[in-house]
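Example 366, ligand flavin mononucleotide.
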Amino acid sequence: MAENLMLDKEQFKIGFFSPNCSGGMAVTKVPERWVNSWDNNVALAQLADDAGCDFILPIARWIGYGGATNFHGNVLETMAWSAGLLALTKKISVIATMHTAFNHPVVIAKQIATIDQISHGRAGLNIVCGWNKPEYDAMGIDMPDDHETRYAYGEEWYQLVKKLWTEEEAFDWDGKYFHAKGVYGNPKPVRGSVPIINAAGSGEGREFATRNANFLFTPAIDLERSKGEVIEIKEKAAAKGRDVDVITLTTIVCRPTQKEADDYLKYYADDNADWEAVDNLVNLQFAHAQSFPHDLLALIRDRFAAGHGGYPLVGTPEVVADGIEEIYEAGFGGVTLAFVDYVKEFPYFRDEVMPLLEKRGIRKAR
Ligand SMILES: Cc1cc2nc3c(=O)[nH]c(=O)nc-3n(C[C@H](O)[C@H](O)[C@H](O)COP(=O)(O)O)c2cc1C
């Protein structure tokens, strides 16, 4: 059995978010914007694996955001993507992102168990309970208006997955949303389960995460505010006898000088932002999700252009390391990184920022 790096409680995690999607996290028209080809994804996964990073996390997306680039209009499906990357890497955890509404739990239980077998225990599951109305329309499914219903559906979905992973005998399931007769799931994940992430912002989402997940993946807009939120989430989890870490998303522009970093940010995320796609994305977030706090959402339009709402870390290696240290001090258990061109830009971060994090005792070397 391989180690699953997501289970190392002593490590501040570094992962990557959204390389399976066209544009990655940057809603920009610049010609060097991320091309989510399979070959680019393999190149990134192998670079990340060799650098000792902990995980790669995809976005599950079916319909793009329009604009000049149709941001996220081209997306590698995350279960197939995970299977391929797990087969081509050695240590890193690769996580599949699954919509509860679009994927039957009996199928997902088996698919996750299968990719966990492929990787000898390095798989993970990111559960997303739905918000994107155009995708429900594309699937021909009615989206429940309220969060309570979406998360209640997600809860039953996950309880059924869990039972399939733990129950040895065939069983019947007669729930509100799922009915199954004589069902069982073999093989099982190599540890009986896999690290569970829940990506959410609302109260219902956080309740779901503290009940079920190992990690809540949630935006950090204002680190002072995040501090209190992380404490609250950890306390909520502890009250349920659980230990939950909180991870957040960042946008990295790391250059030898502050001016170069600032200039590049302005070039890709302001002068050449795909503002129509940014506005579609922000408006959809207002309509059906509370992933980003609504009182701050309008203020962070620029952060959506730069990196889909990720916390911006822009500057020299020292400045970027300082930013990660602040996130660590705010209580987060890890970050995802995103670059305009992940493969081209990550090596500079690996060589210049990761040693600083190790020197400062934020992360142990691998
Ligand atoms: C960091 C982060 C990542 C997410 N990733 C996805 C995704 O890959 N696909 C998706 O459809 N929704 C994704 N979501 C949306 C959530 O799964 C959730 O369904 C939605 O935000 C509505 O719930 P909420 O109001 O509790 O956040 C993500 C949300 C956050 C905060």
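Summary: The longest helix spans residues 147-166.
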